[in-house]
Specification:
five-stranded antiparallel sheet; six-stranded antiparallel sheet; alpha+beta; globular
Length: 172
């Protein structure tokens, strides 16, 4: 079951603590952003505690009000520990299904080595490791929406940037 996240809420062991309100989007695309908006963009909109309390997920402020959180089923998470999360973009077109923006999974080091040894692409990229745990992020391979639609444009804006990836998961 998915729920829209926007206020402090407890959901299956996940605590959402909004730190910043959503910023307006009235920027001129042709000019450089002011220094204060660049600083604000690097701060998280929400900090979510992992189900076992061993890590936090820091989401960018531009995600505020644009995502749903769900857990992965046993089959979907494979060898990852319980508590793997998928962050879904909810399209404005209600006839379309929500699409994954980010999956966060935690593996035991041995399980991650076994997954990496299997054929085919890995289920994501490890961004950090600590105390026998490997923290893995999976991102969408492409934009699933029709080009130039409102959902395609917003989905592109919400995609994580390479420089943001190391800051998303913070082990305690």
């Amino acid at each position: 079951m998915s729920r829209r996240v926007g206020t402090t809420r407890r959901w299956r062991g996940l605590v959402v603590l909004p730190l910043l309100a959503a910023c307006g989007s009235g920027k001129d695309a042709g000019s450089a952003p002011p220094a204060e908006s660049t600083a604000a963009a690097s701060r998280p909109a929400a900090v979510l505690a992992g189900p076992d309390g061993s890590y936090h997920i820091h989401l960018p402020d531009r995600w505020a009000g644009h995502y749903l959180v769900d857990s992965l089923s046993t089959a979907e998470r494979g060898r990852a520990r319980r508590g793997a999360f998928v962050f879904l973009y909810q399209p404005s077109d209600s006839s379309l299904r929500p699409q994954a923006l980010l999956v966060v999974a935690v593996y035991d080091s041995a399980a991650w080595r076994a997954v990496r040894a299997e054929g085919g692409p890995p289920p994501g990229d490890s961004v950090t490791a600590r105390a026998g745990s490997v923290y893995v992020l999976a991102l969408p391979q492409s934009n699933p929406f029709a080009p130039n639609t409102a959902d395609a444009i917003l989905f592109d804006l919400l995609q994580l940037r390479p420089k943001e990836l190391p800051t998303i998961v913070q082990p305690k």
